[in-house]
Amino acid sequence: MFDLTQNLRLVGDVIELEKDGKGHVGIAIGGGSPNCPCLYIVQIFENSPAKKNSLIGLGDEIVAINGESVKGFEKSAVAAFIRQKEG
Prior knowledge:
Distance between the termini: 49 Å
Helix content: 10-25%
Strand order of the largest sheet: 1-2-3
Strand content: 15-25%
CATH topology: Pdz3 Domain
Order of helices and strands: EEHEEEH
């Protein structure tokens, strides 16, 4: 029997991103309420602050923004939350 948990690693980290001149961080978000309890990165755009940060990857879960939990949020609400934040 194959045990998938042998190769599973969960790593929590805090990542800081500065927005570009247009106010973007360069990610597309998937998941979110009501269909999925978690939010995650589905795309990282070329030449964006997220792409330049080697710690961010596809499938990474977004759990908080500026220290505020986004668990259970809709992805559109999280996108708006990111747009509203300074820096």
